[in-house]
Amino acid sequence: MNAPAQWDPLKELMTVQKRMNKLFESALGRTGFDTHDGVDTWSPVCDVYETPESLVMCLELPGFEMDQIEVRLESDDLVVSGERKISVERPGEHYHRVERSYGKFLRRFHLPSTADREAIEASYRDGLLRVTLPSRGGRRHDPIHVAIQ
């Protein structure tokens, strides 16, 4: 039979601190208090995966129209940006809770050297932005370890 685990008050305090940090980061991310000029006030979630033919990025952007989303290449980065504006209250309406994220967002993804920047494609359907970068067929090189002299 295993002996019961001993209670560690310091470990318990660290757990509480981590939870509080997550709570404050989440709240500040929705307000824009921690950003410059309100850019990056929220960040859409994104899945990135690779197939033998391409690199694919899928960003969740529910409620957006296509003309509210910008996809561009800057040097070796793919940049996706946009803005979700909060609807203006009408007389007699008062918000009790706002949990959806509003404001500007900007996501920047560094692209691998094998991505064919000339053949990039993007589609938006049912709140999902899918960006596909075909591979140029170049092989990724294994890491090279360099001896330090």
Question: Describe it for me?
Answer:
Helices cover about 15% and strands about 30% of the residues. By secondary structure, the protein is of the alpha+beta class. It has a domain at about 40-85 and about 100-135: Sandwich (Immunoglobulin-like). The strands form 2 sheets. It has a 4-stranded antiparallel β-sheet, with no helix packed on it. Strands 3-4-5 form a 3-stranded antiparallel β-sheet, with no helix packed on it. A hairpin with a 3-residue loop joins strand 1 and strand 2. The longest helix is centred in the first third of the chain and has 23 residues, at about 10-30. The protein is flat.
Amino-to-carboxy terminus distance: 54 Å
What would CATH call the architecture of the domain at 39-86 and 101-134? Answer: Sandwich
Q: Tell the overall outline.
A: flat
Helical content stands at: 10-25%
What share of the residues does DSSP label as strand, in percent? 25-35%
User: Unreliable stretches, pLDDT < 50, 5 or more residues?
Assistant: 30-40
What pattern of helices and strands is seen along the backbone?
HEEEEEEE
Please report the number of helical segments. 1
Question: Notable features of this structure?
Answer:
149 residues, alpha+beta, Immunoglobulin-like, 3-stranded antiparallel sheet, 7 strands, 15% helix, flat
Question: How are the secondary structure elements laid out?
Answer:
Layout: H1 9-31, E1 46-50, E2 54-60, E3 69-74, E4 77-84, E5 103-110, E6 121-125, E7 128-134
Antiparallel strand pairs: 1-2, 2-7, 3-4, 4-5, 6-7
